[in-house]
């Protein structure tokens, strides 16, 4: 559907305290698949190309503002919070008046789709209504506001469940809390709100009755999509919505050609990209700004955050990768750990129980078993034997280890940095290397073996 939306402003309500989350963190900052809850509706609105977006904050206003300071939205602070109608009153002066329509929605509806808002606006335009409300029919309408209509199906008012008569309570069409208003009408109607309800708040929903009082038309759009408006008030709802978001993300990747062995047990955050024909086993966590190339194999229990992985990479079970770069055809794990700023080049291999930190492993390096490589530059084709340790830290400072191309480091070697092993050099197993090894030399730094006679006591 192509509808121009530049003449619309949006007001997003996100000031409430959200007592039921029982959290120190503002509700709209709770993460859902790597992004704070509020990011979802804000990005949906941004995608619509609206003329203006105003976000009403209150509870933990500073924290919310600073998390979204890079978004093209304006913030207004509602303090104290006297209800949804009061929140829009506080937002009203920020509206430039250039936009004819105002969409109002809550900040806790991450599943809301752009198309739903387009349809709502289309209905608003087609009917010429002063106010258009998005509704949905629920078998269990719970605590939602009820849509009261006359016998011709015209919307008369919205009644909160706590203020409703038994007859009104039995209505199953409810208010999603998402509306489109004509701006002049909205601004005027906001002035008429009174806190005469059970919560003694100013209810935005009373604006609907205000339109009827003025004989202005009110429209409604009943959506069939029972999920997209779903709000989050408790951690139970947070988990339910997060699992729907997760499923949407996973389906997108599968439709792009990624195999997820068990999508219900795969956790891919919203910013992650994955190339076609990559296969991901269960219980993997792909987080932050991670990208994975094509034809990779990611075995069970792998966690990757903020990293760039090339194509045809094999990541075996239990591997953890953070803020690192992995080139094509690298093999990792099982149980490898790449800590920040690890840079593994073409076809490097890092095996079982190997930890790498802030190091470059050039093409074809092999470090297959039980090794720590930190603050090091390991040249092309170097073989790092089992149990090799770069001793990069003296308790105060970190020092660099350089191993030049083609060198061979025997098993159980300690390389005491700063130190350089020259090109093609060889280090004997069990050595503690404290001095540079020149190119093509063999360094052995260990006690010589002596075989002594044993005196066996005969009793
Ligand atoms: C509201 C609607 C109800 C609808 C439901 C849909 C009213 C009076 N009722 O009820 O008809 O079915 O949403 O989810 O509007 N907020 C502020 N400032 C305030 C109060 C609230 O910014 O002073 C924000 C909250 O952060 C929240 C949103 O407004 O994002 C909704 O407030 P909430 O108190 O949850 O309203 P509901 O009782 O859910
Ligand atoms: Mg609510």
Helix and strand topology:
Blueprint: E1 8-14, E2 31-32, E3 35-36, H1 39-47, E4 52-57, H2 61-67, E5 74-77, H3 84-91, E6 101-106, H4 114-127, E7 131-137, E8 146-149, E9 155-159, H5 166-169, E10 173-182, H6 183-190, H7 206-213, E11 218-222, H8 235-255, E12 259-260, E13 266-268, E14 273-274, E15 279-280, E16 284-287, E17 291-292, E18 297-298, E19 303-305, E20 308-309, E21 314-315, E22 320-322, E23 325-326, E24 331-332, E25 337-338, E26 343-344, E27 349-357, E28 360-361, E29 366-374, E30 376-378, E31 383-384, E32 389-391, E33 401-403, E34 408-409, E35 414-416, E36 419-421, E37 426-427, E38 432-433, E39 442-443
Parallel strand pairs: 1-4, 1-6, 4-5, 7-11, 12-15, 13-16, 14-17, 15-18, 16-19, 17-20, 18-21, 19-22, 20-23, 21-24, 22-25, 23-26, 24-27, 25-27, 26-28, 27-29, 28-30, 29-31, 30-33, 31-34, 32-35, 33-36, 34-37, 35-38, 37-39
Antiparallel strand pairs: 2-3, 6-10, 7-10, 8-9
Magnesium ion binds at residues 231, 233.
Overview of this protein structure:
The chain is α/β, with parallel strands linked by helices. It has 2 domains: 8-222, Spore Coat Polysaccharide Biosynthesis Protein SpsA, Chain A (Alpha-Beta Complex), CATH 3.90.550; 250-443, UDP N-Acetylglucosamine Acyltransferase, domain 1 (3 Solenoid), CATH 2.160.10. 17% of the residues lie in helices and 30% in strands. Strand 4, helix 2 (61-67) and strand 5 (74-77) form a beta-alpha-beta unit. The chain is elongated. The model has no long low-confidence stretch (mean pLDDT 96).
